[in-house]
């Protein structure tokens, strides 16, 4: 049977590892959110350009398959 000291150390190690993993995940999430935010402007610009191009009679729009 584990001693209270061993249980303490095991629990403390697990806690420290989980905190470190959480910090890595939070950093990755922040990076992905920043990356997604940076895509918003080009997406909106492309949507606007497509909307204007759709008005031209010689532009054929592909049929989207579902």
Account of the 3D structure:
The protein has 66 residues and is mainly alpha-helical. The protein has one helix and no strands. The termini are far apart. The model has no long low-confidence stretch (mean pLDDT 92).
Structure keywords:
mainly alpha, rod-shaped, 66 residues
Please specify the SSE layout and strand pairing.
Elements: H1 4-54
Short description:
This protein is an all-alpha fold and 66 residues long.
pLDDT averaged over residues: 92
State the low-pLDDT regions, or none: none
What structural class is derived from the secondary structure elements?
mainly alpha
- How would a crystallographer describe the biggest sheet? none
What is the H/E order?
A: H
Q: End-to-end distance, in Å?
A: 61 Å
Described by the principal axes of the CA atoms, the overall outline is: rod-shaped
Number of helical stretches of at least 4 residues: 1
Q: From the alpha-carbon coordinates, what is the Rg to the nearest angstrom?
A: 26 Å
**How many strand elements?**
0
DSSP strand content: under 5%
- Measured as a percent range, the helix fraction is over 70%
């Amino acid at each position: 049977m584990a001693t209270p000291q061993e249980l303490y150390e095991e629990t403390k190690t697990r806690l420290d590892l989980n905190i470190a993993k959480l910090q890595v995940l939070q950093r990755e999430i922040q990076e992905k959110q920043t990356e997604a935010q940076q895509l918003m402007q080009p997406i909106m610009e492309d949507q606007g350009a497509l909307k204007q191009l759709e008005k031209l009679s010689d532009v054929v729009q592909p049929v989207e398959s579902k």
